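tool=predict chain=A
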Amino acid sequence: MTAAAAEGMSSYAQALKQLLQDASARADAEFAASRRAAGAIKRRAAAVDAVLCDLWQSLEIEAVARAAGAVEAPALLATGGYGSGGLYPGSDIDILVLLPEQTPAELDGRIRSFLAAAWDLGLELAQAVRPWDDLRNFAREDLSGYTSLLDARLLAGGEALYKRLQAWIRSDDSWSPARFLAGKRAELQERWSRQADTAHNLEPNLKTSRGGLRDLRTLEWVARRSFGKGRLKDLVALGHLEPDEARSLEAAGRWLGDLRYALHRLVGRREDRLLFDHQPRLAQVFGEDEGLHHGVESLMQRYFRAAQTIDRIGEQLLLRIEDALLPSLRHPAPLPDAPGFAIDGQRLELSTQHPGFATPESLVEPFLWLARRPELLGLGPGLLRALARARSSQGKALARSQAAQERLIDILRTRQPFRALSTMHRHGLLGLLIPPFANVSGRMQYDLFHVYTVDQHTLFLLRNLEQFFQADGPPELSQERQLAARVRQPELLFLAALFHDIAKGRGGDHSELGAKDARRYLGKLGFAAADIDLVAWLVQSHLLMSVTAQKQDIQDPDVVRRFAVQVGDWERLECLYLLTGADIRATNPKLWNGWKARLLSDLYRAARFQLRRGIDQPVHRQDRIHATRLKALEALTGEGALFNVVESVWSDFPDQSFWRYTPDQLRWLTQSIIGSARPGEPLVAVRSVGTEGTREVFVRMADQHGIFATIASVLDRLDLSVQSARIMTCRSGMTLDTFQVIDMRAAEIDAFSRNIEIQMALKMALARNPLEPKLARRKATREQRHFRFSPEISFDARGEDRATQLALVCPDRPGLLARVARAFLDCNLRVHSARIATFGERAEDFFQISTARGEALAEDDCERLRQALLARTEELW
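tool=predict ok
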């Protein structure tokens, strides 16, 4: 190539690059002005169209094909999202070069040059080059490959080959409509299952999460294959969509598209996940930045409601299409005892005798049958469509209808309301029936503690309560099943669940506001005063048990008595225990573990004993000591321990050990000491407690400086999350240190081997003289790094124990406790107990500490510790 020719090619390429850059800038400016993506993505696609076509023509590919004797010219096609006529800033550019059956060898070099030139211009192609027969064979078996062809659009080249492709796509030789529908349904389910089958995860993927843009595109693909038309207005004309449904889908898709465009621009590359990192900036882009949390929560509520709309209407549309494609599968049979309803393919449908939804309460009737008949898979397309039409005329009257509300109570009385109420919510009826519930629909909380939106969390809470009432539930729920069987009116417990978070987002205490809502609601329905009081108290106190168990020392009789006084009676205690366990499980799948189960169970049993004794008859410590010694002694002698040996061990224990430890802990500690082979060495015992990696660690050794810090650092390096710790000093100067931990590696190794590993690591570290706590350096997760706030440190002198209580609230980070322990060591302080509570990104830890002389901290001691804590925790962020 001559210098002049090379210079001409360079100028040509530069001109094409400039065309792309100008189009991109204009598209971005258009989006910035309107915050609407529709025009911007079309502008980008049009610019890429022009460049690719120009490159194709400049290389004279069709002329080369004709000169080589090709019968048909190759075709350049846009496929996938690009084929549909839009390009987001970070999207791949899907193209297909379709070759005729007989492809001249001369074409190969030209096509390679075309693709290389496109890449040189900065176009990130997702390219495929396939001969006609090869493409057909591939697309016959590959659902994704066939789907991408549905969007195929001719850019340049062989029009005849393109028309042949279009005819084949619609032919029986490809994917039949019924087979395509089944394949896309399976694809949806598989994708949803990877994302917990919910549209309500707090860092959703705009494209692939349930209710995302891919779901909307799936509806278009299925409709196009089934009817030859996939646009929403075409589906309305065909009678498969209601006009308001089409408008709702269009608005939801437009909003998700706007979000996706803004996200790509903010990140500077393809990114479809609405990560916490990006949510605040997106809230600013869309004018919802009134305070960090408020703006983000408002933005995400719009997202979740749009996703819910796509999910809800999409489900109905797929059922309607299936009904149209496979009418021969319909064999409705009357539903016994339910006039007007029939069972069609395990779905509830309307029979020909159904009078129509003429009253508000009739809208709730199908869901009552769904709750009563668990063998039903769901509601059929005809019934859903009739409900959707009736909702516009009867829906607003639902909240005022006494009969409709009574149907809801009947659903709760079945003790299995989850499926019925979640279906009602999906189809927009639960919020009409209970208007405050509509306000929390799609409402997220900007933290790492609540991983579901408020409405989805509430529905999962109902599901968890439902499991407590099932006779054949898992063994670990045996106590919950026993208590659930004694619940006087199960519907009251389910009502408390429905209202417990219903006031979130209003400002003020959501528990108090929700209790007022519950009182008004039950009062209008004529519930007895005692029933109203119970539900309102459960709503107002639904956090009481978890806060008490996690933040206070429930081995202290005074703590238990105060809790029992707040509860007041057995019925409230049992209902609160069931509600609390179901609530924690529904907040975050990672929150529930054996340690929390044990805490709640211990608090429940201790409070039950206090209530049985009478709240005006407090359990004195001497009573607790006597009962604990007696139960532990019975267990030990039953295991073969000698009475005098046990008494000899106990004679060295401090008095507080007999009321701070449970009888089972006292038995285990004593048995470990009796069985110790080498009295002069540190004794380390480890045992598994319950399931899910919960363990208890016991250390007994001569008291010396740095024991707590050393143990905390070893546990941290072993990926053991400390939940609580208790440190006591015996009369002989030996320490008794017990730690409750959650194993972050629980699934990697069998329990016995893991216990030995922990035991040996602690023995080696504690055998050093002097002790040398070693701090591990581990990175915080991406989510943790995003949430940062200043530590809150407070001190409270406790004269009774001659100690000081330290409360530390700060961002949670790996290694936090080890560094806090090192700060205690730096200040020469003793630790007597620790309670570690983590709520998402927030750590709330409480410690009982004293000076080395066993005295409460003076003011200057507190200030010195404050500075040491700030310095040590600063290392983490």
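The chain has 38 helices and 16 strands. The chain has five domains: 16-175, 178-329, 440-605, 620-669, 670-874.
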